[in-house]
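quick one before i forget lol
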Amino acid sequence: MSRRTDGGGETEAETPESVDRLENANLLESMQIATLFLDRNLALKIFTSAAKDLFHLIESDVGRPITHIRTHLDADTVGKDAERVLRTLSSIERKVESRDNGARYVMRLMPYRTLDDVIAGVVITFVDITKITAAWSWRTTPSPTSRSIAPPPV
């Protein structure tokens, strides 16, 4: 077992489990994907800082039911979707939009399984697709100044 010293001179033992938890937390934050982990009662267990852009979240919200937390999303189906995921053990994926800034996301809800393959709750991710959808829209929508180019004669 390794030991580390914090800034105050006190030592704290690091177990392999605590190192794994810290590495997982750093990984989640570095991906900048809004992520929520809910337990089997649909109470918030963990969330990434990016999730604060989509939900009114503070640290003391951990332990609160997801249905008690307000969202910035146009369609608030997160609670019902999470219940369905736990009931059916199947994933749900849909596009959602922020009421605040029009940002678009792919919301994905999946059963959260432990290493022992036990369902521990639901994990919800939100991948920002705003730039991709804007680029696709720009590519497929002709501008008023664009001219149609006829194919060359054969």
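fyi Residues 16-31 form the longest helix (16 residues).
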